[in-house]
Amino acid sequence: LLGLQTTKIGQYIHYEESVHSTQKIAHRIAQEGAKEGTVVVAEEQTAGRGRLDRAWYSPKYTGAWMSIILRPSIPPQQAPQLTLLSAVAVVQAIQEVTNLSPDIKWPNDVLLNGKKLVGILTEMQADFDRIHSVIIGIGINVNQQETDFNEQIKHIATSLRIEKGEEINRAALMQAFFLKLETLYEEYLKNGFGLIKVLWETYAISIGKRIIARTMTANIEGFAKGITDEGVLLIEDDEGVIHRIHSADIELSAK
Ligand code: BTN
């Protein structure tokens, strides 16, 4: 990449035309000893993966499909913080390159006008007390047009091109993202999660609003107070009970 201003992220780029999933390749090369900051990028994924075993639609030449290898010296329980950090970095990069202002939806969606623009999937290779690598998978819908989305996802997904009304330079967007990610990651390693958490909460749509969290076992409705240092969502219900939500799909409440 020309003009890359980072010293770590994106210094090594493993580029492929077509892959099953960049996550899979990143896991393999991380195991083989790939350096921190190595990025796997593909033009197309034929089996892109999302959270909760969902598929991630990744057509050719339209998106930024990438997986970034990090090797932080942090306890494995703190790895989810890197998902939140990545969401902040991607929002900042999109703002810089397109002037659009996406929102973050807990835990790891980035939305524009209520539709999904970016997905983030963080996975790690770790022993119980030591991280070998964290693989951050990011999919940004960049240049898809409405007709590129199938019936199922066209109501819930969007792209930068659709929202902005013009084509976006994918390389420029990735470069901006690498720089934001590196800056935030260095801040995080030096000073911890504090600043990242504040930034995340300012971009998050749900915080300070009434929401419904659909977990595996129950629907919890109440006021989204914020997140903890571990990225756990705190919801206060109408009885004043605080619920700690580790995993759920959330939506704004109509009430
Ligand atoms: C989600 O919203 O559920 C997460 C989607 C993550 C998609 C990205 S695209 C690059 C990387 N490779 C994958 O197979 N998935 C992630």
How would you characterize the overall build of this protein?
With 255 residues, the protein is an alpha+beta fold. Helix content is 26%, strand content 31%. It has helices spanning 22-31, 80-98, 160-164, 170-191, 194-203, and strands spanning 13-19, 39-45, 63-70, 103-105, 109-112, 115-126, 131-141, 210-214, 219-227, 233-236, 242-245, 249-252. The strands form two sheets. It has a seven-stranded mixed β-sheet with strand order 1-2-3-7-6-5-4, sandwiched between helices. A five-stranded antiparallel β-sheet has the order 11-10-9-8-12, with no helix packed on it. The longest helix is centred in the last third of the chain and has 22 residues, at 170-191. The termini are far apart. Bound molecules: biotin. The site of biotin (BTN) has 21 residues, from α1, β3, β6 and β7.
The CATH topology of the largest domain turns out to be BirA Bifunctional Protein, domain 2
Give the ordered list of helices and strands: EHEEHEEEEHHHEEEEE
Specify the overall morphology: globular
Rg, rounded, reads 18 Å
Indicate the low-confidence ranges by residue numbers.
none
